[in-house]
Amino acid sequence: MASPCEVLSRAGRTVAREQLRAVAEEAWRIEEKFSRYRTGNVVDRINTAQGTPVDVDPETADLLDFAAELHRLSDGRFDITSGVLREVWTFDGSDRLPTAREVGRVLGRVGWDKATWVRPRLTLAPGMQIDLGGIGKEYAVDRAALLAAALDSAPCLINFGGDLMAVGETNHVPWQVGIEAVGPNGGNPARYIALARGALATSGDARRFLLRDGVRYSHILDPRSGWPVTGAPRSVTVAADTCTQAGMLSTLAMLMGREAEAFLARQGVRYWCMR
Amino acid sequence: MGATDGGREPGSGQFVQRLAAATCSLLGIGSTVPVLAQEEPTWALDTSFLYYGESDERVQDLSLNVLARRLFADDKVLSFGLVYDSLTGASPSGAIPLNEVQTFTRPSGNDVYTVQPGELPLDDTFLDTRYALTATWQQPLGRLYTGSVGLSFSTEYDYTHAGLNFGITRDFNKRNTTLSLGAAIARDEIDPEGGAPLPLAPMGNIGDLSARRPGTEDKDVVDLLIGVTQVVNEHLLVQVNYSLSDSSGYLNDPYKILTVVDPATGEGIARVPAPGTAGPLHEYRFESRPDQRTKHSLFVQGKYYMGGKVLDVSWRYMTDDWEIDSHTLEAKLRWPLGDRGWVEPHLRFYTQTEAEFYRPSLPVGELPEFASADYRLAPFDAWTAGLKYGFRTASGNEAGIRLEYYRQDGSVPDGLLIGNQDGDALSPELDAVILTVSYGFDL
């Protein structure tokens, strides 16, 4: 998951160990199966198919169904084929921007609408790739939370690099979750959220951005233009029933740029934005 | 935009429902359970009501206490404290019981009051309404330091206090060790009823304010503190503080007096008020204290956590250049009771030696530079025993009720008794009950 993962459980020692083992195994399984950095897994098979159809297993098909629905719901803003834009965009805090021509050339290989998805068969145009990184971590948190909850009813918190989900009984003192400040105080909690049940997910560009002529280019790329979203908050945290929902809402809010808060307010969810 | 294909526009109301449906089918669950999350409240209020009542209709205090704290981003904290005290009753004036009726001129000089034979003379002048306000700002300074600055102000009938305090802490050793430094300065103003009596001036008749200094008197106090808090292991926390307090200026209690006595019998010296006026029927003098006092104190505390129970044991040693040495030993045990409650019994023992200039009475003809019969400067022991019951309400607020019993026993050293004086009569024991009801909630 490329970030620290933790399980906090109020269950007894033995059960807590079982929960930890189940969660760790699930996290490793999902990473192994869906990481685009691994070779031989389903994502690698799809990304190296060069235009030939690939049949996928039911779990992968569920994730692709979900990605397709999100693409539709977000009017194309959420797109698992946008990863190839990183061939021209490197968010290292520098002022190196690609040219419009370079972006345009890559953009031809971006767009879920260019893919043919008829469950269980996915056909991508040659040169296209998918990246499930935008869903994978939240999906892993939710899967892990379901496994932990099945083992014990005591409160349990799954935290994969700041995307987290609380399950179990709610008659205890809630988990105290600090949201990291942005700017010079980064690393310190800016506010605390009491989480008794459900999920919190945070999207942000605190450490990944480009800066040129005073304009800050966030690492959130709009797959429709190939350019970073401007005017997005530095950090968006959303509370939702599951980590997947919280993660999709915070990611989409970032993609809405200046409209992030208005978008979240319309959804009627609890959110915390830092600019 | 989304009219024909509901939810395509991410702002439309159906978006969240369709996201929930997609999530349920992804995770293979029928429905989701609603999230329970809320931002930690910005204002936390701790309120308490205290009743303190001494036996024999001595001092009674009703006190209301509110502490409001606001947590800002980045662990910055602003807090305000407000205390309201309403004191009634009377406290010993310093005069000793005599076998005859005693008459005293009130500090205002406008009236007299009498005390029956054998009764301990009490004076009700200082009792009053008091308001105190504090404000403190605390914030992290870099990663390991925390700084604070505070103001304090209090006012009552004849006394005003204004103070400023600073503190800084630094964490060491993976935050297992904290070093604290603190400093406070205060300026107090006393505006005694009828003016400040001149040191050891005799108590005069009604209307005689000749031995008084009109206007206000000041006192300056400087406090310095250095402390270390150490997490020893997962069960034990130890704290050691040393503090130095220096007071200078007017340190007398303007209403405290000494009975002038016969050096052989220890009985009061009769006095006849001037014709046509009322006044004391015996001789008394106002007290006189040095105008400087330096206190050193050492505080050691250990908190031991064991399976939900917390044992808190502390010792404070204080010594000053008035030669008062005191020790306070205290122990509390917090014991969980049920899911959300706990009980906390506690026991405190206090003992002090007398100030070098303490004397219960003044032999006629003797005029030392300093003398006071204030019972707070006398040698005494005190026990406090109490029990608190606290619980967390369903909404997470904390409520508590505590009852304490206080007993103070003085003992005038034989060397300070004169003639027929009876040590027990000069320092009668004091009993008090203290009831505290507290409630903490968030806004």
In short:
The complex is a heterodimer of chains A (about 280) and B (about 450). Chain A has helices at about 15-35, 40-45, 60-75, 100-105, 135-150, 245-255, 260-265, and strands spanning about 5-10, 55, 115-120, 120-125, 155-160, 165, 175-180, 190-205, 210, 215-220, 220, 225-230, 235-240, 270-275.
Q: What composes the largest sheet of chain A?
A: 7 strands, antiparallel
Mean pLDDT of chain A: 87
Determine the number of helices of chain A (DSSP H or I, runs of at least 4 residues).
Answer: 7
The average pLDDT score of chain B comes to: 91
Strand content of chain B: over 45%
Determine Rg of chain B (CA atoms, Å).
29 Å
Shape of chain B: elongated
Amino-to-carboxy terminus distance of chain B: 41 Å
Biggest sheet of chain B, strands in spatial order?
Answer: 2-3-4-9-10-11-12-15-16-19-20-21-22-24-25-26
Q: What is the strand tally of chain B?
A: 26
Question: Which geometry of chain A do the CA atoms define?
Answer: globular
Question: What quaternary form is this?
Answer: heterodimer
- Count of individual helical segments of chain B: 2
Kindly state the percentage of residues in helix of chain A.
Answer: 25-40%
pLDDT < 50 stretches of chain A: none
Largest sheet data of chain B: 16 strands, antiparallel, barrel
Please explain how this structure is put together.
The complex is a heterodimer of chains A (275) and B (443). Chain A is of the alpha+beta class and 275 residues long. Helix content of chain A is 33%, strand content 25%. Chain A has helices at residues 13-34, 42-47, 58-73, 100-107, 133-151, 243-255, 260-267; strands at residues 5-9, 54-55, 116-118, 121-123, 156-160, 163-167, 175-180, 189-204, 209-212, 215-218, 221-222, 227-228, 235-240, 270-274. In chain A, strands 1, 5, 6, 7, 8, 13 and 14 form a seven-stranded antiparallel beta sheet that branches. Chain A has a three-stranded antiparallel beta sheet with strand order 2-4-3, covered by helices on one side. Chain A starts with a strand and ends with a strand. Chain B is mainly β and 443 residues long. A 16-stranded antiparallel beta barrel of chain B has the order 2-3-4-9-10-11-12-15-16-19-20-21-22-24-25-26. In chain B, strands 18-17-23 form a three-stranded mixed beta sheet, with no helix packed on it. The model of chain B is unreliable at 1-9 (pLDDT under 50). At the A-B interface, helix 3, helix 5, strand 8, helix 6 and helix 7 of A face helix 1 and strand 1 of B.
